């Protein structure tokens, strides 16, 4: 029977009950080998310390009165696993900020949505909640003041209570004397990263967990040029300010009491009827962002063929692209755009009701996931009967609209590769290679000798080969737009480190370069125009030439982070040109990428583990490390020449380790966290390899397979079939060896 918590409680008794229950739970978990000794000791010390801190902190009552009653009730109800998961550590601060679960169960997320930020649910330093965000923001605010900062942009997407989180954080920055530019409704992340340099402010924050499932939220930090903070500043911010911030530092100034001129709203041309602007100014940032994007089109002066229009479907996946993308397409001459509204896919609903939310099966609204593409296509076909046959492409963006996925039609003769469907989700690896090809073909201002691209090391080599064929340089970085942007900055400033091989100057170096994997053709020092910045995970931008100052966008460039709205327009531009020239995106990739002898057929296959979410709770820590240790054993086998995977001999292997997460995974004699992955090269082709890469901030892994073949027109389809099957077989075998079975089936 559930106990009832009374107003008056004996805190000493509560804490004693908590200690007994937590220790009993951890003792059992250790005995049953669900956790190891290190996890046991850390959880034992941290859980009891942090729980005591929260229950005895008087500021908690001021900031969120229902926190303590909810925790006391959880102790009375014996919810030891939930309490340990909420208090066993502080949320990790990663390359772009923090991201994590708002709660560990659906009931609590629904309660948060219905009751607001102070909903009586289990909160702690390891959940994404108002207390954690305010303490983090206090650290960020004090860091900024030390640097002389006084202006900040704050936005939010469609996540549960995103608006409330954003407004509460805005109130903290107002207290610290900042001028706050606050979005009036859910906005695309790229509008935040655009607004920062356009308004000449110092920092930006977006409340978003990007494409993660409904349980998550996050806190994305951007510096004064719209990119993520570089590692040195980020480390200073965390260690000297965020890490030492307390609830004493959390003070608020209500929006209604903001001094004149200190609160400015960002949005559209008119104020929204259901938003209180407190008499403050509204800036039309939507138009400025759209106009900037339109300036980067290559065919803006070419009128579309009215007799052969492009038919586009669009899915916002419950996110902030729902207004931005259709408006952008329509303003650039794409008149036949149908936005999917079926199943609420166009509604700003952070529960993401079109996706599975069953415990352990939580799906994420990721436009790069074939299962999400299937949801969008079936909703389109249901909502617009008879329209699908003439629809050319279907574009999707994630909840904060920084990623773009493209569904394309498949020619009849290749449909057996895709379960006899007439469509497929084009991998970003292939789509971005085509974007590079297209811009090289039609942008006559590009001087190849002064241009380069940048991509992450898990992104396909196809686009690198396209660039090299046309005389461009190539920079490869570690994963994340923070690394991509840092690589471009180094090229602009002629400070690129040369001679890196697999991220190191010497094989004996203990750590890899903090953000660079390597460069090709960049030694001239004359390459200063970035044609494209790309990631396998559906992120794209163009950073352009060196900016006039460190707080501006690059000349003829776009935001220094990914922009799904921009990518959507570039994809539509290519699709329209293709249709008017009697072909399609699918056929162009076959002809101009796969059949180009200087490029060849690349099959890039990707699976996360687990397929959705992360390994749950404290046991997830042990499982993730256990899998990585097995992968490191495979690395040792490969060094001895004794490893084959799916019938392919591994001829070399490499560990990519920068040390950036050593504060989370402390190095020991038997384990050092391989934060950028472990790669296994297959015999016969250095372009064919497997990479196992862990997430640094969540308990999950990524499997990336790249296979390459010099295809001809006569064997292209057969080789596609063969390599697709082989790539899947590689992941099948790796999962079996590592003990990481699929939690469900990928739809490919």
List keywords for this structure.
single chain; alpha/beta; Alpha-D-Glucose-1,6-Bisphosphate, Chain A, domain 3; seven-stranded mixed β-sheet; six-stranded antiparallel β-sheet; globular
Compact summary:
This protein is an alpha/beta fold.
The shape, in one word, is globular
Helix content: 25-40%
Q: What do we call the CATH topology of the domain at 602-738?
A: TATA-Binding Protein
Number of helical elements:
20
On the 0 to 100 scale, the average pLDDT is 95
Decide which structural class fits the backbone: alpha/beta
Return Rg in Å. Answer: 25 Å
Largest sheet, in brief, is: 7 strands, mixed
Strand content: 15-25%
Q: Catalogue the unreliable spans.
A: 1-6
- Strands of the widest sheet, in order across it, are 1-5-4-2-3-6-7
Corresponding CATH superfamily of the domain at 602-738: Alpha-D-phosphohexomutase, C-terminal domain
Just name the CATH architecture of the domain at 602-738: 2-Layer Sandwich
Tally of strands: 23
The CATH C-level class name of the domain at 602-738:
Alpha Beta
Between the first and last Cα atoms, what is the distance in angstroms? 47 Å
């Amino acid at each position: 029977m559930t106990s009832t918590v009374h107003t008056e409680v004996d805190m000493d008794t509560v804490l004693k009950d908590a200690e007994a229950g937590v220790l009993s739970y951890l003792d059992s978990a250790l005995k049953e080998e669900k956790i190891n000794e290190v996890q046991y000791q850390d959880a034992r010390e941290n859980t009891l310390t942090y729980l005591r801190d929260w229950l005895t902190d008087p500021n908690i009552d001021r900031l969120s009165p229902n926190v303590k009653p909810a925790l006391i009730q959880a102790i009375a109800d014996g919810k030891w696993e939930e309490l340990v998961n909420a208090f066993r550590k502080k949320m990790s601060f990663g390359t772009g900020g923090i991201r994590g679960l708002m709660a560990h169960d659906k009931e609590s997320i629904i309660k948060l949505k219905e009751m607001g930020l102070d909903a009586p649910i289990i909160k702690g330093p390891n959940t994404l909640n108002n207390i954690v965000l305010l303490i983090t923001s206090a650290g960020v605010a004090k860091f900024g003041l030390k640097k002389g900062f006084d202006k900040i942009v704050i936005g939010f997407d469609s996540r549960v209570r995103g608006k409330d989180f954003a407004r509460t954080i805005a109130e903290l920055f107002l207290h610290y004397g900042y001028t706050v530019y606050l979005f009036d409704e859910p906005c695309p992340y790229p509008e935040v990263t655009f607004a920062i340099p356009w308004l000449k402010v110092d920092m930006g924050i977006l409340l978003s967990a990007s494409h993660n499932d409904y349980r998550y939220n996050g806190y994305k930090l951007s510096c004064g040029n719209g990119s993520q903070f570089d590692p040195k500043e980020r480390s200073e911010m965390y260690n000297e300010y965020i890490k030492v911030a307390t609830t004493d530092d959390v003070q608020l100034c209500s929006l209604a009491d903001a001094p004149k001129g200190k609160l400015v709203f960002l949005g559209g041309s008119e104020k929204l009827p259901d938003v209180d602007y407190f008499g403050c100014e509204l800036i039309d940032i939507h138009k400025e962002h759209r106009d900037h994007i339109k300036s980067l089109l290559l065919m803006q002066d070419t009128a579309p063929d009215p007799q052969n229009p492009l038919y586009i479907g669009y899915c916002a996946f419950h996110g902030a692209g729902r207004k931005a993308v259709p408006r952008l397409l329509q303003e650039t001459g794409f008149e036949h755009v149908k936005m999917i509204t079926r199943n609420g896919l166009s509604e700003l609903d952070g529960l993401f009701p079109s996706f599975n939310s069953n415990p352990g099966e939580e799906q994420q609204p990721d436009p790069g996931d074939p299962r999400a593409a299937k949801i969008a296509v079936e909703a389109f076909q249901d909502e617009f009967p008879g329209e699908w046959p003439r629809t050319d492409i279907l574009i999707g963006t994630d909840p904060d609209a920084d990623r773009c996925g493209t569904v394309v039609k498949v020619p009849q003769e290749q449909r057996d590769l895709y379960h006899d469907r007439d469509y497929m989700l084009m991998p970003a690896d292939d789509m971005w290679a085509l974007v590079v090809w297209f811009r090289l073909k039609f942008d006559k201002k590009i001087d190849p000798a002064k241009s380069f691209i940048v991509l992450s090391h898990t992104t396909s080599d196809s686009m690198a080969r396209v660039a090299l064929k046309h005389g461009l340089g190539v920079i490869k970085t570690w994963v994340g737009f923070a690394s991509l942007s840092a690589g471009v900055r180094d090229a602009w400033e002629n400070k690129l480190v040369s001679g890196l091989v697999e991220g190191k100057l010497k094989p004996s170096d203990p750590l890899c370069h903090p953000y660079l994997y390597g460069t090709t053709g960049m030694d001239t020092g004359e390459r200063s125009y970035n044609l494209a910045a790309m990631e396998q995970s559906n992120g794209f931008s163009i950073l352009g030439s060196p900016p006039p100052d460190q707080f501006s966008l690059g000349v003829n460039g776009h935001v220094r982070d990914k922009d799904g709205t921009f990518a959507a327009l570039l994809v539509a531009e290519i699709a329209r040109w293709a249709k008017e020239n009697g072909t399609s995106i699918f056929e162009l990739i076959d002809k101009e990428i796969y059949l180009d002898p200087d490029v060849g057929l690349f099959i890039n296959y990707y699976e996360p583990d687990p397929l959705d979410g992360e390994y749950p709770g404290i046991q997830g820590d042990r499982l993730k490390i256990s899998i990585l240790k097995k992968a490191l054993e495979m690395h040792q086998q490969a060094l001895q020449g004794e490893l084959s995977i799916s019938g392919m001999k591994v001829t070399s292997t490499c560990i990519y380790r920068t040390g950036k997460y050593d504060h989370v995974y402390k190095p020991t004699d038997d384990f050092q966290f391989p934060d950028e992955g472990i790669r296994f090269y297959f015999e016969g082709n250095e372009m064919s390899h497997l990479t196992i890469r862990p997430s640094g901030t969540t308990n999950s892994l990524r499997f990336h397979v790249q296979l390459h073949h010099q295809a001809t027109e006569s064997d292209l389809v057969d080789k596609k079939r063969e390599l697709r099957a082989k790539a899947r077989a590689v992941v099948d075998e790796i999962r079996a060896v590592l003990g990481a079975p699929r939690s469900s089936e990928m739809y490919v």
